[in-house]
Amino acid sequence: MWQCNSEIARAVTLLPQRIVQRGQRLFNAGEALESIDIITAGAFKITQSTAEGDEWISRFKFIGEWIGLSDYPGEQHSVSAYALDTSAVRRLPLPMLAKMLRDEETRPTILAMMNHNLRQHLNYAVMRRMRARDRLAEFLHQMSGHYARQGYSARSFHLPMSRNEMANYLDLTPETVSRELKTFERTGSIRTRRNEITLVDVNSLLNP
C-alpha cells in the first residue's frame, strides 16, 4: 500500500532489504522496536503467546503491508513475526517514520496504513464470532481481495499458510478446516489442489 505515495515509494526503495527464509523469525515479542518492516515479497504470520504458552496467530501480513505500526510509538514489539515462505522486507527506521508523519505530503499515507491495521483488528474480531463455515468462507474471500489488490487473479490463488496455521488463525481445529473445505468443494463453491484455491461460485461460498 505504500506505493500510493511516490515520495514514500522512492524512499522505501533506498532502504536496506532483508531476506527472511520460510519459518525464520523477523522479530520476537519483547525486542526493541527500532524500525517498521515493509513487506516487498512473500508473507508473514504475526503471533502472540497465550497464557498457557501456546502460539496464537493473530494476523497474516502480505506484500505492501507494514509490520510494527501497531506498536508505534512504543519501545518494544508486542508480537512476533515469522515468514510463511521466502520473503523480503525493507526496514524503515523510526526517526524516518516520525519525519514522514510530520510531512504534509507523506502523513496521509502513514495514517492510512495505521487505519488499515485498525480495520484488520476489528474485522478479525467480527470474523471470530462467525460460525465455522462462515469464518472460513470470509477468510477465503479476504484472501481473494488481497490478491486482487495486488493485481493478481481474485479467482485462483495460492495460500502461503498451512492448514494448521489457517485453523489457528480462525480459532478452529485443522479437522474442521479440512471438513469445511471439502464441503465447499462438494457444493461447487471452490476447487482445491493442496494450497491452490479456485473460487468457482463466490455467491454460494458466502451465502450457503
UniProtKB/TrEMBL annotation:
<keyword id="KW-0238">DNA-binding</keyword>
<dbReference type="InterPro" id="IPR036388">
    <property type="entry name" value="WH-like_DNA-bd_sf"/>
</dbReference>
<dbReference type="Pfam" id="PF00027">
    <property type="entry name" value="cNMP_binding"/>
</dbReference>
<dbReference type="Pfam" id="PF13545">
    <property type="entry name" value="HTH_Crp_2"/>
</dbReference>
<dbReference type="GO" id="GO:0003677">
    <property type="term" value="F:DNA binding"/>
</dbReference>
<keyword id="KW-0805">Transcription regulation</keyword>
<dbReference type="InterPro" id="IPR018490">
    <property type="entry name" value="cNMP-bd_dom_sf"/>
</dbReference>
<keyword id="KW-0804">Transcription</keyword>
<dbReference type="GO" id="GO:0006355">
    <property type="term" value="P:regulation of DNA-templated transcription"/>
</dbReference>
<protein>
    <recommendedName>
        <fullName>HTH crp-type domain-containing protein</fullName>
    </recommendedName>
</protein>
<dbReference type="InterPro" id="IPR000595">
    <property type="entry name" value="cNMP-bd_dom"/>
</dbReference>
<dbReference type="InterPro" id="IPR014710">
    <property type="entry name" value="RmlC-like_jellyroll"/>
</dbReference>
<dbReference type="InterPro" id="IPR012318">
    <property type="entry name" value="HTH_CRP"/>
</dbReference>
<feature type="domain" description="HTH crp-type">
    <location>
        <begin position="130"/>
        <end position="203"/>
    </location>
</feature>
<dbReference type="InterPro" id="IPR036390">
    <property type="entry name" value="WH_DNA-bd_sf"/>
</dbReference>
